[in-house]
Amino acid sequence: MKITGLTFDTTYFFILRSVTYSHINQSAPWYENNKNNVYSKFTKEISATTLPLPFVTIKQMIPTYNNSTNIQFNIVGEYVISYKYKLNQNNWSEECLLSTPLILNNLDDGPWILSIKGKNKDGIWQETPSTYEWTVDTHVSPPELSLSSNFDTGSSTNDLITKLKELTLIGKSEVNSTIEFFDNNHPILYQSINFNDNEFTANFIFEQGEHQITAIQTDKAGNISNSSNTLSIKVDTKLDNFTINHSDTIDDNSCTWAIDNETIHLSGTKNRMQRYPLTAIKPIKSIYLILIKTHGKPN
Hints:
Layout: H1 29-34, H2 38-47, E1 55-58, E2 65-66, E3 71-73, E4 75-78, E5 82-87, E6 96-97, E7 102-104, E8 110-119, E9 130-136, E10 144-147, E11 161-162, E12 166-172, E13 178-183, E14 186-188, E15 192-196, E16 199-205, E17 209-218, E18 231-235, E19 242-247, E20 256-260, E21 263-267, E22 273-278, H3 284-293
Parallel strand pairs: 2-9, 11-18, 19-21
Antiparallel strand pairs: 1-4, 3-7, 5-6, 5-8, 8-9, 10-12, 12-16, 13-14, 13-17, 15-16, 17-18, 19-22, 20-21
């Protein structure tokens, strides 16, 4: 028996009015179980010959976060000769040959969903489209830097003066960005960086002296930011010995003073020289207050 002219993706049922049992392998297991219902066997075998649906895929993928506004996809498919596509909720495109690349230009920043359907040589379109999702991101802002107030040990909590070498910087940036730090325009390594939403912390060990700290970020789409704000941090771990150098015995209301580097010079009415180390008074502006209010020979 030969049957032709069947339509694709259609189930056919055939009723056989007579069956010559001698032409059937009666020793087959299915016959013993279905010898009273031979019709169902023929029905299953014929419907199983239905051809598969066309199905298209994208040959090469792009990063799910991408900073390119112009993208090309190559479409491949099984049992497919052409395709059509749509972006987000827009209308379907005109039919394109499978060999034609799918080129998208001037995409705006934001999420995109590409839907594609393939068609086979019998004109049957793919029922459920293939989809691919990605985000176009072409902008990134500079990170924001600050010194944690717990590590700012100067006379105020925001003067960026500290007696500590091990410091923690805090900042804001895009989540999962790569942050690169610079000290006086030279790249520096950091011990660790931890993200919590769009905030991060980074731990450093700095040497004695002044440091100009900046940072840039590279976001997950590949965009590189401009430089951050500059943190002018002074690390001062040493206590210098200040001295008072005065001449003469200083009488009440006769004290004059001058500053020369780390020495304060006092003078009075009689010739006498003494040096007083000051090992506990710092910064020097605290000394000014004491001297202005002191009369007579300092203790």
